[in-house]
Specification:
single chain, 457 residues, alpha+beta, Helix Hairpins, Heat Shock Protein 90, 3 domains, 4-stranded antiparallel beta sheet, 11 strands, 52% helix
Length: 457
């Protein structure tokens, strides 16, 4: 990815912080708007009730003079309107005065009889009105005062700008400290990057533990990765050492026999020539077999984590196919192979290593079984799930004291007449481990031969 195409973690954090500020500001604005609207209505209702009582007190004293009642009410509302005008108060007020059912005064005759009340459907399209009525039974005066609640201004541009003004002005003051805090907070991450950048390609030692709880998982994951790389490199070095060590003998034999063939003249002893040619072919075959075994060992001991998302395969089908491939070798020695599967077993398998597992176990059983012998292969279910694959032969078996050593690379039991590289069981053990299985060796039925069991849990 090019640098200009990379996202910025710093910008991501700043945008997130800004979004939180704006979200909180929006929530605060909605709360303030709701509170201001409720407060405005409550205050308007209180003021309206007080003015109504005040007006009634003034008019009761002159209740016996209806004309003066009308004039006094008009004069009082004129004074109050002038006061509201000076305060830039734009709400409308309607005052009506009755005496014994007769309307004496109406300050807002153009207004409809029924005015929108708070919470009514009409108040959604116009300002609501708060109405207060005061009565004096002795004089028969009734004063009604309806006051418009001017709370729709908060939905206008001026109202919104007034409520959001403090947030808009304080936003830079909030983001500037956030810029410094996030920059300082990312400094440990840059320090880790610098440590890794300054390391050589051969330095796979673990990174020092981080003192920050948030960075500890990152440092731990990097250390685990370097540990896996270190093991992989060690395996490769080990493989090269094994290959160089074990190929020296067959290659030396090939070189000697090739030199003998080259030095022999055409009239040399034909029998001697045939013996040298046979040893040369044997050396080539041994070197070829050893190379294949070494490659199989390397593939079988690869990290199991590299085989993620392995396909689910039928184990009985895989075993049957590999036994069919080994059948020609068994026929050459007249050996019968019986395979019996008690139940199907499907599980995730790494195909190549599973092939190597079955091939090496069956080839060992064929190699060490007597001619015209019998090999029994059985697949049985395990109680907790999975399957148990066993190979039973009629060969010499392995002494109990040596059953762990034979899994070591290049170890061969002393006195063995059969040729081999000592890698078969080592490959089988590593291939079983790569497929989540365990392998063990026991004596065969009636103490004869060898029983190899592979448990796929």
């Amino acid at each position: 990815m090019q640098p200009e195409q990379q996202s910025s973690l710093f910008r991501r954090l700043m945008l997130g912080f800004s979004a939180v500020i704006l979200f909180v500001a929006l929530g605060g604005f909605l709360y303030v708007a709701w509170e201001a609207k409720a407060t405005q209505r409550s205050r308007t209702a209180s003021e309206n009730a007080a003015h109504t009582q005040e007006l009634l007190l003034h008019l009761v004293a002159i209740a016996d003079q209806p004309e003066r009642v009308q004039q006094a009410a008009q004069a009082l509302e004129k004074v109050r309107a002038e006061m509201f005008r000076q305060l830039d108060y734009h709400s409308h007020v309607r005052v009506r005065v009755w005496q014994s059912g007769r309307l004496l005064y109406n300050s807002l005759p153009e207004a409809p009889e029924a005015l929108p009340r708070p919470g009514s459907p009409e108040a959604r399209e116009a300002n609501a009105w708060v109405q207060t009525i005061a009565r004096d039974a002795a004089s028969g005066l009734v004063v009604e005062r309806s006051h418009e609640v001017d709370d729709r201004w908060m939905q206008s541009f001026s109202g919104v700008s007034f409520l959001l003004r403090s947030t808009v002005f304080s936003l830079p003051l909030l983001l500037l400290p956030a810029w410094f805090i996030i920059g300082i907070g990312l400094k440990p991450l840059r320090s880790i990057a610098a440590i890794i950048e300054n390391r050589s390609a051969q330095d796979l030692t673990p990174l020092p533990a981080s003192t920050y709880r948030e960075l500890s998982p990152l440092v731990t994951s990097i250390n685990h990765l370097m540990a896996r790389l270190r093991r992989r490199i060690e395996h490769e070095h080990e493989f090269l050492s094994d290959a160089a060590h074990e190929l020296k003998t067959p290659l030396a034999a090939i070189q000697i026999n090739a030199h003998l063939l080259q030095s022999r003249s055409a009239d040399a002893d034909p029998q001697r020539h045939a013996e040298v040619s046979a040893r040369l072919r044997e050396g080539v075959a041994r070197a070829n077999h050893l190379v294949h075994q070494l490659l199989a060992l390397e593939r079988a001991r690869s990290d199991a984590g590299e085989a993620a998302d392995q396909p689910v395969m039928a184990l009985e089908t895989l075993v049957r196919d590999r036994l069919a491939a080994a059948a020609p070798l068994a026929l050459q020695r007249g050996i019968d192979i019986d395979f019996h599967a008690d139940a199907p077993c499907e599980r995730p398998l790494h195909q190549e290593s599973a092939w190597a597992l079955v091939d090496n176990l069956i080839s060992n059983a064929i190699k060490y079984s007597p001619e015209h012998g019998r090999i029994a292969v059985r697949l049985a279910p395990l109680p907790g799930g999975g399957g148990s694959l066993s190979f039973s032969d009629q060969g010499p078996g392995i002494a109990e004291a040596l059953r762990q050593r034979v899994f070591e690379r290049f170890y061969r039991i002393p006195g063995q007449a059969q040729s081999g590289s000592g890698l078969g069981l080592a490959i089988a053990e590593r291939a079983a481990a790569r497929n989540g299985a365990g392998i063990r060796l026991d004596a065969g039925p009636d103490g004869r031969g060898l029983l190899v069991t592979v448990d796929f849990a």
